Amino acid sequence: MTDFVTDALRERLLEGVHAAGREVLAIYAEDFSVEAKADESPLTEADMASHHALVALLKALTPGVPVLSEESGEIPFETRRHWARYWLVDPLDGTKEFISRNGEFTLNVALVENGVPVFGIVHAPVLVTTWVGQAGQGAFKWKNEERFAIHVRVLPNPDIEPWKVVGSRRHGTGAFETFREGLPAHVCVSMGSSIKLCLVAEGEADLYPRLAPTCEWDTAAAQAVVTAAGGEVLDARTLQPLRCNQQEDLLNPDFIVAGERDARWERALKEALAE
Ligand SMILES: Nc1ncnc2c1ncn2[C@@H]1O[C@H](COP(=O)(O)O)[C@@H](OP(=O)(O)O)[C@H]1O
Ligand SMILES: [Mg+2]
Question: So where does this one cross the membrane (predicted)?
Fold first, then answer.
């Protein structure tokens, strides 16, 4: 439960994120250049335009609340570990999807309180879709200006209806394949960016195992959506909820997003991680 984000603040945040999304779309529509970051991952003008727009928005709406963005540059753990509340931003998640122009990229803004993502906005401008989740207030999806309440779905009986698993377009691993081999009947779809977590939140997928690296900004906003929709984002080994800002680096452990706990996928996950 967070009471920091009032209805009025949420509306201003949504307007601002949509405005940043329009800046990103304007770049998407033109020829854009691609640079390589220090870690060899790609960076476009759109990542930086969205970063500047979102940081300015958050600083204007909530002066005094620190902002950590993927494109901020490093903030030492010694400084940020004292933050009881901060904004965590991935201005463009799915940069490779942006570059390949398949529309599967998102703008992500999370509010983290004491390590827990309690509020999140995930906006996919090409899909004209925005997911919002707020602890204690549920989760919503806007699609073409229409608003729907969303909720995870109950795992179906796989003999009647196969489970739905969502995986990365680019980060499939042997462990992911072993996990699938341990599952009952299921179908698998590939998707880029934090949209994967949102698909679990809205009951379009049952499981998203991520047995490959990600950073906290990749997941925090969508984790708030998933939890507000009744699901969980769990460390794949401990099955405890992911927490932010607990350590020097900003890497997540391997994790799984699930609408519901179930011994069958927990067993498959254990086998996949034992390899
Ligand atoms: N080696 C690595 N270490 C940390 N994060 C990584 C990584 N390889 C990929 N990622 C993260 O995975 C995200 C893409 O995941 P997916 O392929 O499932 O969409 C990237 O987001 P960005 O596009 O914001 O850089 C990046 O942050
Ligand atoms: Mg990202």
Answer: none
Element at 57 (helix H, strand E): helix 45-61
Please give the model's pTM, rounded to 2 decimal places: 0.98
Residue range 147-171, pLDDT digits in tens: 999 999 999 999 999 999 999 998 8
Q: What is the third-level CATH fold of 163-274?
A: D-Maltodextrin-Binding Protein; domain 2 (3.40.190)
With a 6 A CB cut-off, is 215 part of the ligand 1 pocket? yes
Distance in angstroms (rounded) separating the CA atoms of residues 151 and 259: 9
Token look-up 């335009």 returns 49
Ligand 1 centroid distance, CA of 213 (Å): 7
Provide φ and ψ at 45, rounded to 5°.
Answer: -60, -30
Q: Are 226 and 232 in contact (CB under 8 A)?
A: yes
| Vertex 211: Cα angle to 206 and 213 (nearest 5) | 120
